[in-house]
Write a structure and sequence with these properties.
Blueprint (H helix, E strand, L loop, with lengths): L10 H15 L8 H14 L5 H8 L5 H12 L10 H13 L6 E5 L6 H14 L4 E7 L2 H9 L1 E3 L8 H7 E3 L7 E4 L1 H4 L2 E5 L12 E5 L9 H11 L3 E8 L14 E4 L2 E3 L4
Parallel strand pairs: 1-2, 1-7, 2-6, 7-8
Antiparallel strand pairs: 3-5, 4-5, 8-10, 9-10
Helix pairs in contact: 5-6
Length: 273
């Protein structure tokens, strides 16, 4: 067994990973993130029996190592999330759903930085509460395949349920028993309304259809201004006229786009056509 400590990450090697993740995902890692990069990639360097992070970077650049590159991207882009984060957004959503509904069309919401699934499942619980068996769906996307695999299971530790209203817990979550004690499972009827897919917001977007609401929360803080502008410009054609674009309370679209109107801080509306 290889028990050697991983090598130190040099400044030059760190700059290589900085440039890589910026080019691929648009994420702007500050110099203060050097320990994070070193820590998250250390196991991969050690597992491959490499002498340096530079050797690992060389592996990532090989065309026949796309799977390892995805693993590195997963490690460097995974972010913390939880159910009903910034709950005022979900109160706003609940209030606006009746006015946003269009006869004969399914109600659609895109969670564009869905991480391990807590945000899209939160959205789905709200839609299930308000719309019931009517036609609605949630699309959750992320650049990380690892968190998407976890999200698709809808299976979470019990310690993650803080924030979920008690009546939602009883209606939309199943409490684990036996070997699954200490966990919850999102009810199948809710899970079946949520589709997860890998989407890199820093590239041309796949055909996702049109949405009534788009959530892009807690991800633009990792982008520089130019990347923010490009990402939002790509996404806006997918938001229907009259629809809402929601960012986190710590984010703003000021200087990023003039195609949306502020409703409340962090909530924007696309003007009617």
């Amino acid at each position: 067994m290889n028990t050697l400590s991983p090598p130190a990450l040099s400044d030059q090697e760190f700059r290589q990973f900085q440039a890589m993740i910026y080019d691929i995902a648009g994420i702007n890692l500050s110099d203060a993130k050097k320990p994070l990069v070193s820590g998250r990639l250390a196991k991969r360097v050690k597992q491959h029996g490499l002498k340096s992070y530079g050797d690992y970077f060389s592996i990532l650049m090989r065309q026949d190592r796309r799977e390892e590159l995805q693993t590195a991207i997963d490690l460097l882009t995974t972010n913390e999330t939880f159910f009903f984060r910034e709950p005022r957004h979900f109160d706003f959503l609940r209030q606006q759903i009746p006015a946003l509904r269009r006869a004969g069309k399914p109600f659609r919401i895109w969670s564009a930085a869905s991480s391990s699934g807590e945000e899209p499942y939160t959205i789905a619980m709200v839609l299930a509460d308000v719309l019931g068996e009517d036609a609605w769906e949630v699309v959750g996307s992320d650049i990380s395949t690892r968190v998407l695999e976890k999200a698709r299971t809808g299976h979470y530790p019990m310690k993650r349920i803080d924030g979920i209203p008690r009546n939602y817990l009883s209606r939309f979550c199943l409490k684990g028993t036996g070997p699954q004690e200490g966990t919850i499972l999102i009810d199948r009827n809710v899970r079946n309304r949520v589709a997860f897919m890998q989407v890199n917001l820093n590239e041309s977007l796949p055909k996702l259809g049109e949405f009534d609401v788009i959530f892009l929360r807690n991800v633009m803080i990792y982008f520089d201004m130019e990347t923010k502008q490009r990402v939002v410009e790509r996404m806006l054609p997918l938001l229907r006229p009259g629809g809402y674009f929601i960012v986190s309370h710590s984010e703003s679209l000021n200087g990023i786009t003039d195609k949306l109107r502020v409703v409340t801080p962090s909530v924007y509306r696309k003007p009617d056509a």
